[in-house]
Task: structure prediction
Amino acid sequence: MGKVTVLDHPLIKHKLTYIRDKNTGSKEFRELVSELAMLMAYEVTRDLELEEIEIETPIKKMMSPVISGKKLGIVPILRAGLGMVEGMLALLPAAKVGHVGLYRDPETLQAVEYYCKMPQDISERKLIVVDPMLATGVSAIAAINSVKQRGGTNIKLVCLVSVQEGIDAVQEAHPDVDIYVASIDEKLNDHAYIEPGLGDAGDRLFGTK
Ligand code: URA
Result:
């Protein structure tokens, strides 16, 4: 079963409070989501492999570690996932970015892929699927399906606000995927919104409400 990590850091808690606040406007909301994504990227990449290279300080030669091994890919789920890309790229500038777009079929309530463009060498990359909200898990599961269908095998899911049932659903569908969240909230309401949550992350990012 994939590991679930709740990032329990004062900076993350602080920024999360302000993205939850309904009085936070889109500009500040975007900045905070970006900063949170950067902080999450720090933890999500904790297991990256290192190799020693020789460098020369002004004083002497030394062996010193640099990132090695598989390259990274960031996969935002459209559209709210876009809000997390810039912050992740700030720490991981060499990562490639794939996109998955999904809509919910009103009859079957299933997520249907309408867009998917992945890095060509997807199977050689460590992939980080990002979406600020993990609610029912339907979108995350479908997005991970899309990534796997195109050859992705090494996948992590990073969300800001989640609920336990969404985590459970992803773990059941994709037991190989580790999940990182900043908070596990109380519950989903009847409209599949997270309570207390932060409302509609896409609308708040892009000012469409
Ligand atoms: N998506 C959102 O943007 N907000 C929620 O609360 C749940 C899903």
Notes: The helical segments are 10-20, 26-44, 85-91, 138-149, 164-173, 201-206. The pocket of uracil is lined by residues 80, 133, 135, 193-194, 197, 200-202 (CB under 6 Å).
